[in-house]
Here is the input.
Amino acid sequence: MASSRTSSSEGQAAPDSMTDGLVDEMLGYYIDWRQDAAAAENAYRLWSIASTDEEALRYAAYVAALDQEESSAIRYALVFREVERAVQCDASVSNPG
Here is the structure.
């Protein structure tokens, strides 16, 4: 969704805002995180109703789903912080002083 404009000094396309790509990336990681959270919730549900024979396997699947959800949450948090820094940088460039 990032639009570009031509820089008169360099003659190359430059992004309107450095945050455009980061915001797209952040939204993608947010969606991944929410999907992984739903998968962990489903794995928990399956574990909670598992028969004795399936309990260990369902528990292992639940733990794996929790690990995946945690990894997704960490990736989302990291890019979220990058977006915050980029927005602050854009604001300070736009409003020096």
User: Anything to note?
Assistant: The radius of gyration is 21 Å.
